[in-house]
Every structure is written in C-alpha cells, then in structure tokens.
Amino acid sequence: MKGNEMTRRNLIRNASLLAAGTVATQLVGKAGAIEIDKIERVATKGRINQSVSQWCYGKWSLDELCQVCQKLGLKAVDLLSPGQFATVKKYGLVVSMVNSHSLTNGLADKKFHDECLTRLREAIDATSEAGFANVISLSGNRRGIPDDVGIENAIEALKKIVGYAEQKKVTICLEYLNSKVDHRDYLFDHMAWGVEVCKRVGSDRVKILYDIYHAQIMEGDIIRTIRENKDYIGHYHTGGNPGRNEIDDTQELYYPAIMRAIAETGYKGYVAHEFVPKRDPLAALTYAARICDV
Fold first, then answer.
1. What is the pLDDT of residues 191-224, one digit of tens each?
2. CA 53, CA 76: separation in Å to the nearest integer?
C-alpha cells in the first residue's frame, strides 16, 4: 500500500507540474511579455482564499501581478502600502495584508513603542478606509530581551491600540519569523510566544501571521500547530523550505495536506504565497495556486 500510495502521489505531483508548465509556456510571448488573455483559471474551489506577496515578483509591475492573480483565481495581493491600494482595487482584488512599522524595531522593545504605534495607527486608518482587513506587526529583534519581558512589552503596546483596531474593524497580525536563517535575533520565533501575547491581549483583533516557511525552520510540526492554534491565527504565508523558493517537489513541505488542514479548521482568511521563484515565476505561481486549491 505504501509503495502504491507514493507512486500515486508522485504521479499527481508530476501531472500538476506538467500542467503548470504548459499553462506558463502559453503565457509568455517571444519578448517575455505576459500574455494575460491566455492564462487559465486554476483556483476554482474557494475553500482557500489565495493571495500573493508582491515583493516576490519584483520583475512584474503591480498591474501585471494583479492581472495574473485575477486570471489564476487569486483574490488578493499581500504586503502593500496605501499608495498601492487603488491599483489593486482596479482589478477587483483586495490587499490581504497592509504594511506598517519596522521589522527589526518592533513591539517587544519599549523604546520603539511610540514609533510602532504611530505607524500602526496610520496603517489601521488606511486599511479601514479602504475596506481591507489586516495590518502586519512584528516583535522586532531581541537585543538581549528575554522572552517573558518581550511578551510583557508587546502586550503593553498592543493594549494601547487594540481598542482602536476593534473600532476600525481591522486585525493586527503579529508575524512569526525564523531567527536561524533569515532574521537573526528576531524575537517572535516560536509559536508559544505569539499565542501567549494573543491570549493575554484578549481580543479577536490581535492574531498571528503564521508563516509556514519560517515555522518549518524553527519548529516544524506544521499541521498539528495549525490545528491546535487555529483560534489565534489570522493569516498565513507559504514558502518552500529549504530556500524559500517554489512550493513544489524540490522541497520538504507538502502543501496540499497543509491547505486541507487549514480549510478543515474553518479558516476564512487569506493564504498568501511568499516564495521567491528560482525558475519561471508564472509557472511557479500557477503551480502554487493549483496545488493549494484543495
């Protein structure tokens, strides 16, 4: 049974890769321009609301990215600022996560509280006015701060602004990042830290941005973590490990199973692809949209 199952899984993966590659071949003209009219819709089931992080596709304009998303069946673009909102809305999409304060100078260090709260308030205002849902926040770097002190500091800052977020119907999402490979000294690098902050703030307007790539590096056990902490997760990011590249069979995470686990929790928010393609970006995004449409 195990041999047959592995063969079946490989066949499914290979078929998906072939299909994605075929679609992508049709989309790129001789001069490398994206032939938007030839893109096929691959995300059709609607159980997972898919988005994509714009910074990963820097060779495309935001207009091009939005057109690709619209055609593939993705519903949103992630990690944008207010000046980009109009472009996204033009294509009937939403901004699934809005930028705010610094990554390294965050809520876990009191000396950055005023700066962070100012940026968060500005982002909440713009997000609410646009009718979007989420604003990102970050713990910042540790700089010798113990976990428990960082928790207290983050709670103190969030309690000063959570009432405003509730009033504006915007969710502040604290991002979990790895401190081993990409963000040395980042403080929120284990799920328990963010869960404790959320529990003690005690508002549905403070959640965790669970980045699956970062979490795999630090702790693994992705599906169990999702199931056990579903009430504290407000947003997801994808990415292949190792390398933060395509979420295909070149890496160790099996995203169809992860997406099914997310859907089974009843999650209705967004899952944003945040991987940097090493090969053809259109083939990579097409494949990701296909396998995550569970």
1. 999 999 999 999 999 999 999 999 999 999 999 9
2. 9
- CATH domain 2-291 topology: TIM Barrel (3.20.20)
Please tell me the distance from the alpha carbon of residue 93 to that of residue 179, in angstroms, as a whole number.
33
Give the tokens for residue 5.
């199952």
Domain boundaries, the chain: 2-291
Which two three-digit tokens encode residue 92?
């009937």
Model-level pTM?
0.90
Residue 173 corresponds to which amino acid?
C
Say how far apart CA 144 and CA 77 lie, in whole Å.
35
Residue 111 · residue 85 · CB < 8 Å? no
Report which DSSP code applies to 56.
G
Within 10 Å of residue 130's Cβ, how many Cβ atoms? 16
Instruction: Look at residue 85 and give its three-state secondary structure.
Output: helix
- Residue 5 CB partners (closer than 8 Å, separation 6+): none
User: Is 44 strand, coil or helix?
Assistant: coil
